[in-house]
């Protein structure tokens, strides 16, 4: 009996001891960097060896949860974790230890440990400061409103610190009552937790991570999206001012910077964001060269005499894509042929590329998508850069950019570009220049005002002037003599362009979800040109205005935009002796509704435009995104677009030929033709997964464009004729693309893509494939960079391979046999590559080559020996016209 009692007492003692020790265990959480399951095992094992009773690491949240006894220091544990190779909020791993980790464990080293720990920071809160979880501007408005409804005289919530500072009369309310009210509207805080039902009813952008410890940094604030675009439907006055985000009013981008190239997971539309860092991977002298590492856009020469380039997307010409700058109409009308050369690559801060129908707030002209270019205008400190570039065939350019804050509200940007082509480049010895000689001077000034968070006002002003002069044709052409005074064939192009714009926005006080934006732009464009004995000149005056109001219906799950626009285009063109004048006056109204659910986003919009020449046009557009999981996203889109065709300006690539122009009028008011109208439908799948312990993604999309009406450019009726007429029958374009991005090992990125196009139209002689459009295309981009040294220096290597399948060529059977083309071209491949060396953060040099396969179209100019004869034609271009070309460049930042 005594033995039994002794055992019972001993058992109770041991049980009570273990209970006491259990009561002395403390639980804490810390940020630790890791990448894969190997990291998880290493971190947890190291923590336990260092004294933790329990250690659980989450790769997704980058949080290590520790359970320790009171006599165990978490600092000692985190120090051991760092010694094992993993940066954390208190200690940083040694570089050599980090480098010795397996490749799959090489995480992004963006965590900056501080001597003052998170816990210490928590202890130094102000007396009336409390932890409240949230993500964005909508959260801020909701939290502060709830606090004031509960009796607070003022409430200031910070997304960055995840705290709210309260001011209140203690005789009327209390912190407990206020925090309880905040929890009731959906926001967990240090005293109360929101109910699951209320939390789940929050808009998608407001769904904060409930597992993150109270007061810890919210990753959705600092790293929520790898992309940020000028199209983001984010609230304007977000408390978060991190560099990866921006404050904006719809169409009025005020500040912020863009992340590297990525497909936005937030956008309902299929939107790619291209950062300026991506543009450094290639020569990128201007916008036409900004898509060399992008598989979506096809870039090709369109004329062997003038050397012009054109973009194509979804199997259709550039004119069907809305090309904007700062969300304002840019490359259209008279600028269609040469406008890609007017935006220097070094001026570009980011590009947003949307496939398929874009938002109705940006106009009615988009049919296959939108490409928006944002200029350099964001910098926390003054930054001045100089770029010098030269290739081995007589082309040189210089770019000067200066972005600087004037004070806390004002900043300014100076942009200056000059280029010149001086060498006689004739690689195929046909006596014609492979690219024109000449110069361009391009200057712009931008002024920005940002007081969104205080007064709610922001404004952006810009002015741009361009002077571009080009001479092409035979190498013996003397530009000092008139064409009729010499036998050599010449081309002269002289362009002057001036534009001024302003975008002003206002965010309503206390309502970051409600804003008003107004955009205005005036453009003057003049071109004087000749092509042998043919002359073409034109003037265009354009005024554009767009007013947008944005707010919510009840809550931020239901957003809407409404507004009005006005467009004036005045054209005065002369071709040979014929003069064509027209004024297009287009007032319009529009509305757009966005419904946001936990896993879906629906954007439905419509606009009505009252065109004085094309009649009233109704333009509906719909985009829908559904997240099956955070890694599996499906998108659907449908929409209508219309445009008026500028048949002369948009087809100047055929002017350097003997072809006469014939317009078969059908009673329309623009060159006797009706406007172009098309419907576009699309579906896409975005799938992310881990491969080699790194993020990988596959995107597959299919788009179809059906023309209700179209101005066909018929090159087949006769080799001596260029005929324009309206579609009678069907015209369609099917586009399929799949793209795979992955990182096989650290610092090495691979992008593979395949595209299939089926583009056909009913011409007068029957249905045919559109010429110069390959059915099959392949794409590969490889990019590798070495680790940065202590001065920020590193090497980078980039190469891109484009494979282009056979293309249908125009019917030239009416010519003598020696001046005919085959029915289809041969397939070919083009290889571009670049090596660059960043010596430090301020000095970079690069060397590259284009068309390293040296594939060159044979005889791109038909009957080049007799340029004034009946069979001369410089517009039948389907492949590169220059062999391998090498270049060097230097970037210096002051």
TrEMBL record:
SUPFAM superfamilies: HMA, heavy metal-associated domain, Porins
Signal peptide start-end: 1-22
Keyword Transcription regulation among record annotations: no
Keywords: Cell outer membrane, Membrane, Receptor, Signal, TonB box, Transmembrane, Transmembrane beta strand, Transport
Keyword Nucleotide-binding among UniProt keywords: no
Domain HMA span(s) in chain numbering: 125-190
UniProt-annotated location(s): Cell outer membrane
Alphabetized InterPro entries for the sequence: Beta-barrel_TonB, Beta-barrel_TonB_sf, HMA_dom, HMA_dom_sf, Plug_dom_sf, TonB-dep_rcpt-like
UniProt xrefs under Gene3D superfamilies: 3.30.70.100, TonB-dependent receptor, beta-barrel domain (2.40.170.20), TonB-dependent receptor, plug domain (2.170.130.10)
Topology of the protein relative to the lipid bilayer: Multi-pass membrane protein
A Pfam family annotated for this UniProt entry: TonB_dep_Rec_b-barrel
Protein name listed in UniProt: Outer membrane receptor protein involved in Fe transport
Organism name: Chryseobacterium daecheongense
């Amino acid at each position: 009996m005594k033995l039994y009692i002794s055992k019972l007492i001993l058992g109770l003692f041991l049980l009570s001891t273990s209970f006491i020790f259990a009561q002395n265990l403390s639980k804490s959480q810390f940020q630790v960097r890791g990448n894969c399951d190997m990291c998880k095992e290493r971190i947890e094992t190291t923590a336990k060896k260092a004294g933790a009773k329990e250690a659980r690491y989450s790769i997704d949240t980058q949080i290590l949860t520790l359970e320790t006894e009171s006599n165990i220091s978490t600092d000692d544990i985190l120090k051991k974790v760092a010694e094992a190779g993993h940066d954390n909020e208190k200690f940083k791993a040694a570089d050599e230890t980090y480098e010795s980790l397996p490749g799959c464990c090489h995480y992004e080293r963006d965590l900056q440990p501080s001597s003052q720990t998170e816990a210490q920071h928590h202890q130094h809160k102000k007396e009336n400061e409390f932890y409240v979880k949230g993500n964005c501007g909508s959260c801020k408005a909701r939290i502060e409103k709830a606090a004031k409804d509960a009796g607070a005289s003022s409430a200031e919530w910070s997304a960055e610190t995840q705290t709210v500072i309260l001011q209140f009369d203690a005789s009327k309310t209390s912190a407990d009552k206020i925090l309880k009210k905040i929890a009731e509207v959906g926001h967990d805080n240090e005293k109360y937790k929101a109910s699951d039902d209320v939390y789940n009813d929050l808009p998608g952008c407001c769904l904060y991570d409930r597992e993150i410890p109270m007061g810890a940094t919210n990753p959705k604030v600092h790293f929520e999206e790898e992309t940020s675009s000028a199209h983001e439907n984010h609230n304007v006055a977000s408390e978060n001012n991190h560099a990866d985000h921006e404050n904006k009013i719809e169409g009025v981008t005020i500040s912020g910077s863009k992340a590297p190239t990525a497909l936005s997971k937030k956008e309902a539309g299929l939107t790619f964001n291209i950062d300026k860092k991506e543009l450094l991977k290639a020569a990128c002298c201007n916008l036409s060269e900004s898509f060399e590492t992008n598989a979506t856009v096809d870039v090709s020469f369109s004329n062997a005499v003038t050397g012009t380039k054109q973009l194509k997307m979804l199997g259709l010409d550039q004119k069907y894509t809305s090309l904007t700058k700062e969300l304002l109409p840019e490359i259209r009308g008279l600028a269609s042929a040469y406008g890609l050369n007017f935006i220097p690559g070094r001026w570009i801060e980011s590009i947003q590329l949307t496939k398929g129908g874009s938002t109705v707030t940006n106009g009615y002209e988009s049919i296959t998508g939108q490409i928006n270019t944002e200029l350099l205008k964001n910098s926390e400190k003054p930054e001045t850069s100089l770029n010098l570039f030269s290739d081995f065939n007589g082309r040189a350019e210089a770019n000067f950019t200066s972005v600087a804050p004037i004070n806390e509200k004002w900043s300014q940007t100076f942009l200056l570009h000059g280029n010149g082509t001086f060498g006689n480049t004739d690689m195929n010895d046909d006596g014609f220049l492979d690219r024109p000689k000449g110069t361009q001077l391009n200057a712009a000034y931008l002024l920005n005002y940002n007081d969104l968070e205080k007064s709610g006002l922001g404004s952006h002003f810009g002015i741009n002037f361009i002077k571009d002069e080009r001479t092409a044709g035979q190498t013996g052409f003397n530009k000092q003599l008139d064409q009729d005074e010499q036998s050599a064939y010449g081309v002269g192009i002289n362009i002057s362009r001036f534009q001024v714009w302003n975008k002003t926005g206002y965010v309503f006080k206390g309502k970051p979800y409600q804003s008003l934006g107004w955009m205005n732009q005036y453009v003057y464009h003049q071109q004087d040109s000749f092509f042998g004995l043919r002359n073409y000149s034109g003037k265009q005056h354009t005024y554009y205005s767009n007013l947008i109001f944005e707010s919510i219906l009840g809550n931020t799950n239901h957003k809407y935009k409404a507004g009005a626009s006005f467009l004036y285009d005045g054209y005065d063109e002369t071709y040979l002796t014929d003069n064509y004048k027209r004024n297009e006056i287009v007032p319009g109204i529009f509305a757009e509704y966005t419904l946001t659910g936990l896993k879906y986003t629906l954007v439905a919009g419509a606009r009505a435009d009252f065109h004085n020449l094309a009649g009233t046009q109704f333009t509906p557009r719909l985009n829908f995104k559904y997240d099956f999981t955070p890694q599996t996203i499906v998108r659907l889109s449908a929409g209508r677009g219309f445009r008026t065709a500028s048949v002369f300006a948009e087809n100047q690539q055929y002017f350097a030929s003997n072809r006469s122009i014939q317009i078969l009028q059908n009673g329309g008011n623009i060159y006797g033709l009706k406007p172009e109208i098309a419907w576009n439908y699309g579906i896409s799948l975005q799938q992310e997964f881990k491969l080699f312990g790194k993020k990988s993604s596959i995107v597959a999309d299919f788009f179809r464009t059906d023309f209700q009406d179209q101005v066909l450019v018929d090159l087949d009726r006769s080799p001596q004729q260029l005929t324009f007429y309206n579609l009678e029958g069907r015209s369609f374009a099917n586009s399929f693309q799949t793209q795979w991005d992955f990182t096989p090992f650290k610092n090495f990125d691979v992008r593979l893509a395949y595209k299939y196009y089926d583009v056909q139209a009913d011409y007068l002689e029957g249905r045919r494939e559109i010429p110069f459009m390959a059915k099959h295309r392949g794409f590969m981009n490889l990019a590798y960079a070495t680790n940065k040294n202590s001065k920020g220096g590193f090497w980078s290597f980039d190469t891109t391979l484009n494979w282009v399948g056979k293309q249908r060529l125009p019917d030239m059977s009416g010519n003598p046999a020696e001046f005919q083309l085959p029915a289809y071209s041969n397939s070919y491949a083009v290889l571009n590559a670049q090596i660059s060396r960043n010596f430090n953060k301020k000095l970079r040099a690069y060397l590259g080559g284009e068309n390293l396969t040296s594939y060159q179209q044979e005889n791109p100019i038909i009957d080049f020996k007799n340029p004034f004869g009946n069979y001369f034609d410089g517009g039948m271009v389907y492949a590169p016209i220059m062999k391998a070309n090498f270049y060097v460049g230097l970037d210096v930042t002051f």
